[in-house]
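[Automated response] Your request has been received and processed.

Submitted sequence:
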Amino acid sequence: MRSSSLIEDRPESNFAGQFESFLGVRDDAEFLVSLRACWAALWTTTARRSMAQHEQNPADTAMAVLVQPLVNARASGGGLSETADGQMLISATWGLGSAIAQGEVVPDRVCSPAMVSCAPTRPAASITARPACTAPELPRKRYRKPW
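Generated structure:
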């Protein structure tokens, strides 16, 4: 279970990791406690301090809670669609991605100037305009599996 706010990934401010995530929720009581904590994460001291630094107000946004099954991942990670310098960043590590979010490991990272570049094939006013997308070549690196 994890929280997700409307202000989490904005170009002018990034709140990724400021809110709550709970792994391995096992029963109804733990589910309800985790659910309430995720919703309330918008109002924690840490979150409010970060929002104040970026002139954001928790009352002007909303918090969602995503409930997802937990898989016993061999590797996991996450990405930023756009970093401060305009690149896309993918971070990954062995095991659960929470180790990255909590700063417990130094992840493998891949940066790309732009993951996908799209240009309309017809004038923008056309309802039927479809983008022609191309993905640049990314460096390929082989990793040994720890198992």
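Summary generated for your ticket: The longest strand covers residues 88-94. The chain has three helices and nine strands.
If you did not submit this request, please reply to this message.
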